[in-house]
Amino acid sequence: MTLIMGAVNVTPDSFSDGGRYLQAEAAIAHGLELVADGADILDIGGESTRPGAVRIDPALERERVLPVIRELAAAGAVVSVDTMHAETARAAVEAGARIINDVAGGLADQDMLRVAAECHVDLVISHWRGHSDDMYAHAQYTDVARDVVGELVDRMEAAAAAGIPPARIILDPGIGFAKHGSQNWDMLRGLPALVGVGPRVLVGTSRKRFLAELLEADGAGEATERRRDLATAVASVLAAQAGVWAVRVHDVAATRDALRVAAAWRG
Ligand code: PMM
């Protein structure tokens, strides 16, 4: 069964749940709710990666995420830390995180691969070509899926050279990162090629702009959070059918139900 990673954003500017979980207490309660809803992993992030988001000081990032990670890990949750900063990753592992989720695939901080190797935890390597403020300037591909798979294989080799065994690696195509609307669909269509590379694959489509653009096409009205969550659940089922190991979502309950329907269908 495909695993569900529930996103817990401890940021004031994250586009989907902006500000609501800034307080550690609220974030912890939200994480526990996601576990009750069926999350297998909780992904705790303190820096928004939404298009145009402002970079934050890693010290502020740690202030946001560490209390939340400590508490949720102590409560028995499998915790992942969503960070591009090696120092934050190390502190998060010391606080109980078992997965480092780096949306920059180790490219934003030259110490990340070494720290991940030293920490002996799993590492999510996402496809990344630049920070949110200019990532669309890098959205040029010959063949999206082929290019992304090639670049992720390069990152995997860099990780191996840093001492991270393949069994510790999770690859992520970075949906929405340096990819325009239709390029995300090209990537999703090409998921089997990424799954074929070997390591576990994680996919995050949750509430992303390319889904909203689809839902709003032809004057279909505003893509509300509810509509985006339904679209996310469907996309997550299709990703599961393509063989991914896990999906990263905000509405865990909807995705759990959708994945159950797909599993029953398969028998
Ligand atoms: N997307 C976001 C944040 N973290 N991590 C991984 N591994 N994959 C993703 O696609 C991903 C991520 C952006 O989503 P949010 O800020 O709305 O949670």
Would you give an account of this structure?
The chain has 267 residues and is α/β, with parallel strands linked by helices. It is 45% helix and 14% strand. It is built from 10 helices and 8 strands. It has an 8-stranded parallel beta barrel with strand order 1-2-3-4-5-6-7-8, surrounded by 6 helices. Helix 3 packs parallel to helix 4 (112-119) and helix 6 packs across helix 8 (209-216). The protein is globular, with a radius of gyration of 17 Å. The site of pterin-6-yl-methyl-monophosphate (PMM) has 20 residues, from strand 1 and strand 5.
Content-based structural category: alpha/beta
Number of helices: 10
Tell me the radius of gyration: 17 Å
Characterize the largest beta sheet: strand count, sense, and whether it forms a barrel.
8 strands, parallel, barrel
How much of the sequence lies in strands comes to 5-15%
Strand order of the largest sheet: 1-2-3-4-5-6-7-8
Distance between the termini: 12 Å
Low-confidence stretches: none
Give the beta-strand count. Answer: 8
Which ions and ligands are bound to the chains?
pterin-6-yl-methyl-monophosphate
| Average pLDDT score | 94
Please state the overall shape, judged from the principal axes of the Cα atoms.
globular
Question: What attributes characterize this protein structure?
Answer:
alpha/beta, binds pterin-6-yl-methyl-monophosphate, globular, 8-stranded parallel β-barrel, 267 residues, 45% helix
